[in-house]
């Protein structure tokens, strides 16, 4: 896969998405299997959650990602005619707090930090209120200089002011940053804000093949391969 070339500005800051990019959301599948009798409803729920987060931002409203996630689960219960109770909502919330990292992540982050990159995260999820964050639970938090949440800005990805806001907080230009994400809607938002972008091809995700739309600067199977491409 194509690496950084002389024509590509090498980033000094890598901005990581969290859900799917670093953390394996397939760990939530048993919750959906137990509730709906089909683990594939996880992907339906996540897709609807992303769609409604974008809808909330485009309509000028805001509600935090956890609240929205619970509400989308209840909505899917109505669609599938499955009763979703408070215990089910708590089971989902607890499972989300304790998801594990993808197997390549710790090694990839260590390598990137050793090579001098500044590492931060930008997630749709709100800050944790006392309990360990998913990154802390997965043993990843120490790798990152800062953990940014869209909750601070009151809009969801891929609103461009999130990416420019992160760059401003770090005292750099957007062009100094590379967004690292497993979702093309995230990489496109970052690129629209002036960042470069690396797409991590996690299972269930792929590059959108539209020639007139921005393609990721880099495409990698995982963070270990990304480190090689940035070398």
UniProtKB/TrEMBL annotation:
MF terms (GO), sorted A to Z: hydrolase activity, acting on acid halide bonds, in C-halide compounds
Cytoplasm found in the keyword field: no
InterPro entries named among the record's database cross-references: 2-HAD (IPR006328), HAD-like_sf (IPR036412), HAD-SF_hydro_IA (IPR006439), HAD_sf (IPR023214), PGP-like_dom2 (IPR023198), S-2-haloacid_dehalogenase (IPR051540)
Keyword flag Hydrolase: yes
UniProt KW keywords: Hydrolase
Family: Belongs to the HAD-like hydrolase superfamily. S-2-haloalkanoic acid dehalogenase family.
NCBIfam families: HAD-SF-IA-v2 (TIGR01493), HAD_type_II (TIGR01428)
Protein name: Haloacid dehalogenase
Organism: Mycolicibacterium poriferae
């Amino acid at each position: 896969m194509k690496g950084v070339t002389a024509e590509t500005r090498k980033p000094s800051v890598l901005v990581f998405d969290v859900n799917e990019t670093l953390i394996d959301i397939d760990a939530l599948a048993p919750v959906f299997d137990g509730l709906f009798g089909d683990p594939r409803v996880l992907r339906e729920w996540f897709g609807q959650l992303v769609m409604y987060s974008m809808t909330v931002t485009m309509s000028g409203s805001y509600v935090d990602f956890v609240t929205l996630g619970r509400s989308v689960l209840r909505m899917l219960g109505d669609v599938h005619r499955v009763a979703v109770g408070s215990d089910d909502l708590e089971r989902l919330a607890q499972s989300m707090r304790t998801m594990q990292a993808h197997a390549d992540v710790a090694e990839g982050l260590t390598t990137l930090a050793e090579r001098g990159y500044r590492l931060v995260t930008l997630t749709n999820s709100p800050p944790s209120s006392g309990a360990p964050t998913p990154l802390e639970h997965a043993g990843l938090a120490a790798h990152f200089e800062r953990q940014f949440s869209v909750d601070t800005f009151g809009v969801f990805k891929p609103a461009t002011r999130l990416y420019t806001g992160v760059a401003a907080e770090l005292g750099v230009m957007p062009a100094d940053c590379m967004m690292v994400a497993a979702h093309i809607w995230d990489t496109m938002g970052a690129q629209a804000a002036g960042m470069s972008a690396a797409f991590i091809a996690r299972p269930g995700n792929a590059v959108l093949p539209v020639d007139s739309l921005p393609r990721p600067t880099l495409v990698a199977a995982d963070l270990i391969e990304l480190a090689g491409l940035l070398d």
